[in-house]
Amino acid sequence: MLLVTGVNGGLGTLVLERLAGREGVVAGSRTPERVRADVPARLVDFDRPQTLAEAFKDVRTLLLISAGAAEDDVVIARHGAAIEAAERAGVEHVVYTSLSGDGDHLPYALAHRWTERRLRASATLRWTVLRNGLYAELLGAIAAPGPDGVIGAPLGDGKLAAVARADLAEVAVTVALRPDEHAGRTYELVGERAVGGAEVAEALGAEYRPGTLAETRTAVAASDAQAFQVPMVVGTYSAIAHGFLAGPGGPGDLAALLGREPRPALEVIAEGR
Predict the structure, then answer these.
(1) Which of 111, 112, 126, 271 could join 183 in a cystine, given CB atoms 3.0 to 4.6 angstroms apart?
(2) Are strands 61-65 and 2-5 parallel, antiparallel or unpaired?
(3) Is the pLDDT of residue 7 over 90?
(4) With left for phi above 0 and alpha for psi between -120 and 50, is residue 90 left, alpha or beta?
(5) What is the pLDDT of residue 131?
(6) Burial, 155: exposed, middle or buried (Cβ in 10 Å; 0-12, 13-18, 19+)?
(7) What is the DSSP string of 96-161?
(8) Could you tell me the CA-to-CA distances from 179 to 7, 47, 74 in Å, in that order?
(9) Cβ(161)–Cβ(245) under 8 Å?
(10) Average pLDDT along the chain
(11) Using CA atoms, how far apart are residues 56 and 54, in angstroms rounded to an integer?
(12) Against a cut of 0.85, is the pTM above it?
């Protein structure tokens, strides 16, 4: 049996779309009643570890989609509870959606690296780590033009090797359905062509006038963002602007696992507009 967590939004929703109707697939969610009707669902709440023993019963493969929208200590506690429960339940293989290696400069990298280390230290679990690059959809959101048609995102001349979220979902499904072929592997799943603010502006018919990190920090802090999200957002801009997320360029693990060329980030961004 394959259990997929984090299915009520983002990457998890796309993964479940590709697995719907397949025998032996179960969704894990804090709100199982909201899971699509054609997929069996179980209560999985990492903040309530007592729910996990029953949820992981008879599970052979766990696709652990990162529960990263929180402070590091909260995320680490969630992932730690999931891995410990998987070990106790006799789960054989965990496929974990992590963060690309060049993302170590990002404020939210630590919990991912801790989870990778915890999996490698397990005495019973086989594992595969999918180091996902930042989404093209995210770049489209943080570099969106304002009402005046100007993109003021503080990206400088930096670029991001952004990835279509649907491509990452496709890879996650491919690996989770045949985990034995990918045991002990860490895949770097970043885009083949990095793009920056100027390219996004050209694709959208906008003007690019990058602001400063200080201006952005003030704006994000004044929004409805939670306190821990402010350094996350600003740190993401900074890592892109200063050239840490441009990727190696050229075909890599993403294309190999897809069996085709990845979707261009600018195409995804333009469609999202």
Answers:
(1) 126
(2) parallel
(3) no
(4) left
(5) 98
(6) buried
(7) EEEE-GGGGGSTTHHHHHHHHHHHHH-SS-EEEEEEEPPBHHHHHHHT---TTSEE--S-TT-EE-
(8) 19, 27, 28
(9) yes
(10) 95
(11) 6
(12) yes
